[in-house]
Write a structure and sequence with these properties.
0% strand
């Protein structure tokens, strides 16, 4: 019912104004989809991290794997299985080229690849949030400039410049700037929060990978992390 609201902006705006409005709506929906999806995944990984502590209380390696649930898409299961397969493969095929590496270096390399895969999955979608957070304000600003331009043309054509003639069109155009900020602010805040959460998950994955490495190389879990297992995403 507001003559200066969003409905009036849509009905009175031209094709460019409507395209900008649709772009901002799509960007908002896409950013919230990524936010909800990544936040849910991060919560799952935190739960998996807590459950991984029970792995080292098991009596056998197989019993330890049984404590890691769920089995699907669990990076801790992937790390444990990668370590076991790397150790078995190295001992079985000593005549291959990788046999020139000692078992510690070979397992480290295999575990690093598994961590790199987990890192890629964690960071997937964050670039979308970063792009939306940085471009949405400018998309809204473009809509504002375009709306003010056409509002001024309309006012000039009518030959009237009273406040009631100026306030409506200009106010409707400024709504586009507000919409751009509404889209950008949640995307930027979510990007920062998810990045911090991912770093915490990667730190826990590196600690687990270090213990897996120590288990297959020395037969026991030690307290000092192999610096080679540190990934670029961990500060």
């Amino acid at each position: 019912m507001n003559s200066y609201g969003l409905l009036n902006l849509w009905t009175q705006g031209d094709i460019v104004t409507r395209i900008v409005a649709v772009m901002l709506l799509v960007m908002s929906l896409l950013s919230w989809y990524v936010i909800v999806l990544k936040a849910w995944r991060l919560r799952q990984l935190m739960t998996m991290s807590s459950a991984s502590k029970e792995f080292w209380h098991a009596q056998t390696f197989e019993d330890g794997l049984a404590t890691l649930a769920p089995k699907e898409d669990n990076p801790y299961v992937s790390l444990a299985q990668e370590g076991a397969e790397a150790a078995a493969h190295h001992r079985q095929f000593r005549g291959d080229l990788h046999g020139a590496l000692n078992i510690s270096d070979w397992i480290t390399s295999c575990l690093r690849r598994s961590i790199d895969d987990a890192t890629v999955k964690l960071q997937a979608g964050l670039s979308v949030l970063a792009s939306i957070g940085s471009t949405a304000p400018f998309v809204g600003l473009f809509g504002t400039v375009w709306g003010i331009y056409h509002a001024l043309i309309g006012i000039a054509s009518a030959g009237q410049a009273s406040i009631d003639k100026v306030a409506g069109p200009v106010g409707e155009a400024l709504i586009m700037t507000a919409l751009g900020l509404v889209v950008a602010i949640p995307a930027t805040l979510a990007y920062n929060a998810l990045t911090r959460g991912n770093k915490a998950v990667l730190s826990k994955l590196n600690g687990f990978a270090h213990d897996v490495h120590a288990y297959f190389v020395t037969g026991g879990v030690v307290g000092r992390r192999d610096p080679q297992l540190k990934v670029a995403g961990e500060q």
